[in-house]
Amino acid sequence: MESKRVAAEKAVEYIRDGMVVGLGTGSTAYWAIQKLGKKIKGGLSIKAVATSINSENLAKELGIPLISISEAEEMDITIDGADEVDNEWNLIKGGGGALLREKIVASFSKELIIVVDESKKVSRLGKYPLPVEIVKFGHELTQKKLGKLGCIPKLRVVDNNPFITDNGNYIIDCDFGSIDQPKDLHSVINMIPGVVDNGLFIKIATKVIVGYRDGSILEL
Ligand code: 5RP
User: Fold this and answer.
1) Which atom of ligand 1 is nearest to the CA of 116?
2) Which residues does the entry assign to the active site, renumbered to this chain (predicted)?
């Protein structure tokens, strides 16, 4: 999709020789990885850390040199997508199920560039169901506890089976309709035993690039 591609490709312009780059996950990050692959063929020298097995496989296909997160002290820039971005740059992420690795990589990145199409910009988070990664043990009970926070929680299912994250966990998609206090909700959810992490990213983005259907971009 044009709007995703233009935003992602703009972000890649910030990558310089010698950088360690975090590779996000999803259909927008895909375009950033593709562009990075082309730049590497053209002589750019970087090392990359992937936030999912999908992005790792794509990077390998494109000849992008990869290192593990353990080998990287920190990332200079991470480029990743989002499911929603509010006016304070709080995010909902995890639509692709990679929220945990994405958050770990983002938290060790000097810069986190979020690339989105115009549909992802919202004045208030929560229309998009919030993904919460939970361990399998007691998942029905964890799901009930999440429901007590005022959402409709649904186990993510793919082809009639629970979706399994790269970390071997389940995802509960929590439909809050609207999230008034993202920071508080982030902490409350992560206090529930069985929860590994949730898809709220609170004020961690350092730049947001929005792509539009006509091919224009807005850098925030
Ligand atoms: C994956 C994510 C993605 O960044 C998010 O779902 C946006 O995906 P897309 O760029 O395909 O719209 O958080 O876990």
Assistant:
1) 10
2) 102
Does 165 count as an annotated binding residue?
no
211 annotated binding-site participant:
no
For 197, the 3-state DSSP assignment is strand
Domain that residue 96 falls in: 2-121+202-213
Measured distance CA(55)–CA(156) in Å, rounded: 21
Q: 105: which 2 tokens?
A: 């990589």
Question: Any catalytic annotation for residue 102?
Answer: yes
The total domain count for the chain is: 2
| Ligand 1 center from residue 25 Cα (angstroms) | 6
Q: Are residues 19 and 94 in the same domain?
A: yes
Q: Are residues 95 and 142 in the same domain?
A: no
Q: What is the pLDDT of residues 73-104, one digit of tens each?
A: 899 999 999 999 999 999 999 999 999 999 99
Q: What's the one-letter identity of residue 52?
A: S
